[in-house]
């Protein structure tokens, strides 16, 4: 376990998967993250690479060859990631390509997850270096799960998600059996800029957005006000999810998305895929801001 700490927040990150697992107040010990209860959902905040979501039949093709990857890629539970830098306010984790990655992802790369703590804000940065002799293709994303409700005197339905702009976006529905995108959409906004959280909201799986205008989403409590805000300027897709009846909500900034049911399975033309040229570096960050009223 690795830790960042200042006078406002204490952050913990697991070595396996470089997975964020705790954000809590230094002063009052209020914890803002889901506890990964294995009877419900045994994860805290998986990092997603080199795909986001599910592939059709868990496979894709690249230059005529077929490869297999599990949903969200191979970072979750990965024991080959190492912490290469550690200071009071920053942790840097790295995964280099190896024989295991090459079997499912035929590229030479360096992948980094960087956690930086400043005051009441944790920044999560994904960086990919192309050290191959050809263009590499990938997606990245986050999947952090936050407690909901945060405080004992509340219910799940006391919470809503507030967006910084008025939205007309609808969720893109998944084929629940295969986890693939269908052509159907559905309105889910309760007002022009908010979604009320209910346990039935996720009965058809995740909410998936391709065209949000907002670049901030705030978790808001009726009785305790704004709890936390996620800033995701670098991400074009967004997922919101929880298991039905579970007391958490995942706020998921994505650069990439699940396969469509009608995909041709070619990695180069996959929706949302990033193409990174030889000797180039890609970087994208999102921020988790804990509102200071809950840190005293």
How is the topology of this model organized?
Elements: E1 2-5, E2 9-13, E3 20-25, E4 47-48, E5 59-62, E6 65-68, E7 82-86, E8 90-96, H1 99-104, E9 109-118, E10 121-130, E11 136-138, E12 140-142, E13 145-147, E14 159-163, E15 171-175, E16 180-186, E17 194-196, E18 207-209, E19 216-221, E20 225-231, E21 237-241, E22 248-255, E23 274-276, E24 281-290
3D architecture notes:
- With 296 residues, the chain is mainly beta.
- The protein has one domain (2-294): Beta-galactosidase, Chain A, domain 5 (Distorted Sandwich), CATH 2.70.98.10.
- It is 2% helix and 43% strand.
- It has 1 helix and 24 strands.
- It has one helix at 99-104, and strands at residues 2-5, 9-13, 20-25, 47-48, 59-62, 65-68, 82-86, 90-96, 109-118, 121-130, 136-138, 140-142, 145-147, 159-163, 171-175, 180-186, 194-196, 207-209, 216-221, 225-231, 237-241, 248-255, 274-276, 281-290.
- Strands 7-8-9-10-24-20-19-14-17 form a 9-stranded antiparallel sheet, with no helix packed on it. Strands 4, 12, 13, 18, 21 and 22 form a 6-stranded antiparallel sheet that branches. The protein has a 3-stranded antiparallel sheet with strand order 1-2-3, with no helix packed on it.
- A hairpin with a 6-residue loop joins strand 2 (9-13) and strand 3 (20-25).
Short summary:
This protein is mainly beta and 296 residues long.
CATH topology: Beta-galactosidase, Chain A, domain 5
Instruction: Describe the sheet with the most strands.
Output: 9 strands, antiparallel
Helix coverage percent: under 10%
Extended strand count: 24
Domain tally: 1
Question: Can you tell me the CATH architecture?
Answer: Distorted Sandwich
User: Which structural category fits the helices and strands?
Assistant: mainly beta
Low-confidence stretches: none
The chain-level mean pLDDT equals 96
For the termini, the CA-CA separation is 25 Å
Query: How is the largest sheet built, in terms of strand order?
Result: 7-8-9-10-24-20-19-14-17
The SSE order reads EEEEEEEEHEEEEEEEEEEEEEEEE
Tell me the Rg in angstroms: 19 Å
Principal-axis shape: globular
Number of helices: 1
Name of the CATH class: Mainly Beta
Q: What share of the residues does DSSP label as strand, in percent?
A: 35-45%
């Amino acid at each position: 376990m690795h830790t960042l700490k200042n006078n406002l927040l204490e952050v913990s990150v697991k070595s396996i998967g470089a997975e964020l697992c705790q954000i809590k107040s230094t002063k009052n010990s209020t914890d803002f993250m889901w506890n990964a209860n294995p009877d419900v959902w045994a994860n805290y905040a998986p990092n997603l690479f080199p795909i986001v979501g599910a592939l059709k039949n868990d496979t894709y093709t690249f230059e005529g060859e077929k490869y297999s990857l599990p949903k969200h890629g191979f970072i979750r539970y990965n024991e080959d990631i190492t912490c290469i830098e550690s200071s009071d306010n920053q942790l840097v984790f790295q995964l280099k390509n190896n024989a295991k990655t090459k079997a499912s992802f035929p590229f030479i790369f360096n992948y980094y997850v960087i956690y930086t703590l400043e005051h009441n804000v944790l920044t999560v940065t994904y960086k990919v270096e192309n050290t191959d002799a050809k263009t590499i293709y990938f997606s990245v994303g986050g999947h952090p799960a936050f407690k909901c409700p945060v405080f004992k005197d509340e219910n799940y339905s006391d919470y809503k998600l507030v967006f910084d702009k008025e939205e007309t976006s609808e969720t893109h529905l998944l084929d629940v059996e295969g986890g693939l995108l269908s052509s159907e959409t559905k309105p889910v906004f309760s007002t022009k800029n908010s979604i009320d959280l209910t346990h039935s909201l996720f009965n058809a799986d995740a909410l998936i957005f391709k065209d949000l205008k907002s670049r901030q989403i705030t978790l808001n409590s009726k009785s305790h006000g704004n709890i936390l805000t996620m800033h995701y300027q670098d991400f074009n897709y967004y997922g919101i999810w929880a298991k039905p009846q579970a007391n958490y909500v995942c706020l998921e900034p994505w650069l990439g998305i699940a396969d469509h049911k009608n995909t041709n399975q070619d990695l180069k033309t996959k929706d949302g895929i990033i193409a990174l040229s030889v000797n180039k570096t890609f970087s994208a960050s999102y921020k988790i801001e804990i509102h200071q009223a809950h840190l005293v």
